[in-house]
């Protein structure tokens, strides 16, 4: 049944002269002088979309781990699930930016890989997961730096074009959030590490409850 | 009456017999002098048919993540300056958001029932569909979305079927009820809306000015929610 519908659709689509449905329309004629992003920079931005989604999946795996009945750290799970959705939002913000600049009008289908597997799915304890999260954020920050480098270097970017606006956006919005987020994680690691000095199990238990109530 | 008491007593013993494994673990763990952290291995949240449906639920999570990415690509296509269809962009972005949220919800559910998430459990036909394009014309994109939603709905029905077999190890009303409340009814709503949209376009694209009709249809989508 599904196959029949599909075949009907395809037939309807490709034989415009015989079928009544007009599914395709001509492309509008729009000047393209305003589209001024250069290729190496666009490619870097496209890769960054994938990087943000990879981070999102890694955080999902952390959330899944700390949700388990035998791990039972709902505070950590909440923190990591929220981080996963934030990373996905970053990917969507990058896409929106590219669309605003007239990019992504073609070759959209291969922008995102359909299956991403997390690199790690088990953690010894809460502090080791927070440390992994901080390392992950630092690597995302480095990759944003790399995008900026390519997009602001006229030689590197080709066509003698320095993308001031994109660089400002990445610096002001993305790096701002990265640095604040990293400081927050480092502070959490510090506190948890100190709480666990003499009473590891109790320290993590109390820290988790504070994460859950949103106190920290 | 006596028979009833005997039966009841028997049932109580049988019940206790199958369910006191955690308690036995605890007794043993508290008696032994050596510390053993894995001593409470049976004090978990697993019961009912969760073991039987766990692989299906894990795959279902990963399918949701893939679908969320695919809808995001479809939304992206409609957001480009040439297509510039805000309504279509909105419905696909909303679908992408809801698949993502449902994936997280399913992960939480798996762990609620004592399971562990496995991100490697995927459907090959979903992940390896490399010739699938997401740069589609309006009616094509609605048709694709309708097919994807029906596939998700039928997968939910299949898992529900696994959990409703009236046999020990395969009967789990809590799983069935969760699937019904969180997925089955929502699927019916989305599928009905999408099929309504394809019917509308079927008549609109048949008219004298299908290009203007699409503009008006997109404008309508902008003001309505699909999920």
TrEMBL record, chain A:
The keyword Iron applies. This is Ferritin. Residues 35-196 form the Ferritin-like diiron domain. It comes from Ignelater luminosus (Cucubano). GO terms for molecular function: ferric iron binding; ferrous iron binding; ferroxidase activity. Fe cation binds at residues 52, 87, 90, 137, 178. It is an enzyme of class 1 (oxidoreductase). InterPro entries: Ferritin (IPR001519), Ferritin-like (IPR012347), Ferritin-like_diiron (IPR009040), Ferritin-like_SF (IPR009078), Ferritin_DPS_dom (IPR008331). GO terms for biological process: intracellular iron ion homeostasis; iron ion transport.
TrEMBL record, chain B:
GO terms for cellular component: cytoplasm. One of its GO terms (molecular function) is ferric iron binding. Keywords: Iron, Iron storage, Metal-binding, Signal. Residues 1-16 form the signal peptide. It comes from the Eukaryota. Coiled coil: none annotated. The keyword 4Fe-4S does not apply. Stores iron in a soluble, non-toxic, readily available form. Important for iron homeostasis. Iron is taken up in the ferrous form and deposited as ferric hydroxides after oxidation. This is Ferritin. It comes from Ignelater luminosus.
């Amino acid at each position: 049944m599904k196959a029949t519908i599909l075949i009907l659709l395809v037939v309807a689509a490709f034989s415009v002269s015989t079928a009544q449905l007009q599914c395709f329309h001509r492309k509008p004629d729009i000047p393209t002088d305003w589209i001024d992003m250069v290729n190496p920079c666009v490619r870097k931005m496209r890769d960054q979309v994938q990087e943000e989604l990879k981070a999102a999946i890694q955080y999902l795996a952390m959330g899944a781990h700390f949700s388990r009945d035998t791990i039972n750290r709902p505070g950590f799970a909440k923190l990591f699930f929220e981080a996963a959705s934030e990373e996905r939002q970053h990917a969507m913000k990058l896409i929106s930016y590219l669309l605003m600049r007239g990019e992504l009008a073609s070759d959209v289908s291969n922008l995102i890989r359909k299956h991403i597997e997390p690199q790690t799915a088990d953690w010894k304890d809460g502090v080791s997961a927070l440390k992994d999260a901080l390392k992950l954020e630092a690597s995302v920050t480095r990759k944003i730096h790399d995008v900026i480098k390519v997009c602001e270097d006229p030689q590197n970017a080709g066509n003698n074009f320095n993308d001031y606006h994109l660089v400002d956006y990445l610096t002001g919005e993305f790096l701002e959030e990265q640095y604040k987020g990293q400081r927050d994680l480092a502070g959490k690691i510090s506190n948890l590490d100190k709480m666990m000095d003499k009473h590891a199990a109790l320290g993590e238990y109390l820290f988790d409850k504070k994460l859950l109530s949103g106190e920290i | 009456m006596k028979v009833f008491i005997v039966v009841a007593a028997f049932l109580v013993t049988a019940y206790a017999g199958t369910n006191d494994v955690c308690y036995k673990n605890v007794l043993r763990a508290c008696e032994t002098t050596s510390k053993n952290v894995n001593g409470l291995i049976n004090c978990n949240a697993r019961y009912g048919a969760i073991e039987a449906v766990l692989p299906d639920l894990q795959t279902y999570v990963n399918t949701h993540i893939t679908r969320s990415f695919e809808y995001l690509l479809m939304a992206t296509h409609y957001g480009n300056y040439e297509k510039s269809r805000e309504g279509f962009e909105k419905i696909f972005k909303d679908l992408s958001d809801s698949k993502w949220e449902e994936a997280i919800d399913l992960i939480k559910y798996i762990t609620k029932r004592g399971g562990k998430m496995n991100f490697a459990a995927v459907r090959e036909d979903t992940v390896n569909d490399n010739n699938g394009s997401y740069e589609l014309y309006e009616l094509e994109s609605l048709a694709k979305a309708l097919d994807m939603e029906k596939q998700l709905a039928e997968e939910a029905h299949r898992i529900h079927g696994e959990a409703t077999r009236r046999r020990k190890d395969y009967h789990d009303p809590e799983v069935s009820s969760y699937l019904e409340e969180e997925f089955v009814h929502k699927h019916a709503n989305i599928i009905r809306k999408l099929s309504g949209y394809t019917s509308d376009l079927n008549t609109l694209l048949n008219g004298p000015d299908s290009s203007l009709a699409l503009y008006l249809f997109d404008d309508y989508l902008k003001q309505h929610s699909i999920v």
